[in-house]
Task: inverse folding
């Protein structure tokens, strides 16, 4: 793995439990992000973009079945304990949620919000 690799996702699967049955929302995602790289994920509504992001951020409870690996700085985020994840979430990985009016302060420049 080259030194510049910061995020390496392999065969990520995410399934939601709805009334006792599991439904796959993310299926077999593989992606890599290197330093100084910007990756945009596009796709139709409901294809799993937000679920991918919330999985990287470790925002799902135990009812959500997650398979594969999310390697960030040589650690698999999927196997981190909550207190370990709390040191990364917000400090090293941030998320701006989908509703920009509640996620962003319109009085601040976007650069201030993301840096
Ligand atoms: N908490 C949940 N419980 C059950 N199903 C869910 C849950 N969250 C998302 N889903 C389902 O997972 C699939 C992916 O949803 P997701 O919100 O990740 O899509 P998206 O690509 O972000 O869509 P959009 O472009 O509309 O934001 C959809 O079928 C959605 O209904
Ligand atoms: Mg979304």
Result:
């Amino acid at each position: 793995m080259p030194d510049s690799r910061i995020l390496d996702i392999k065969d990520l699967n995410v399934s939601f439990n709805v009334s006792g049955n599991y439904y796959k929302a993310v299926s077999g995602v593989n992606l890599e992000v290197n330093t100084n790289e910007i990756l945009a994920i596009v796709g139709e509504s409901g294809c799993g973009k937000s679920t991918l992001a919330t999985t990287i951020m470790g925002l799902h409870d135990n009812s959500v079945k997650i398979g594969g690996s999310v390697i960030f700085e040589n650690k698999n985020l999927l196997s981190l304990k909550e207190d370990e994840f709390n040191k990364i979430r917000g400090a090293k990985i941030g998320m701006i949620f989908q509703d920009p009016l509640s996620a962003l302060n319109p009085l601040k420049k976007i650069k201030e919000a993301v840096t």
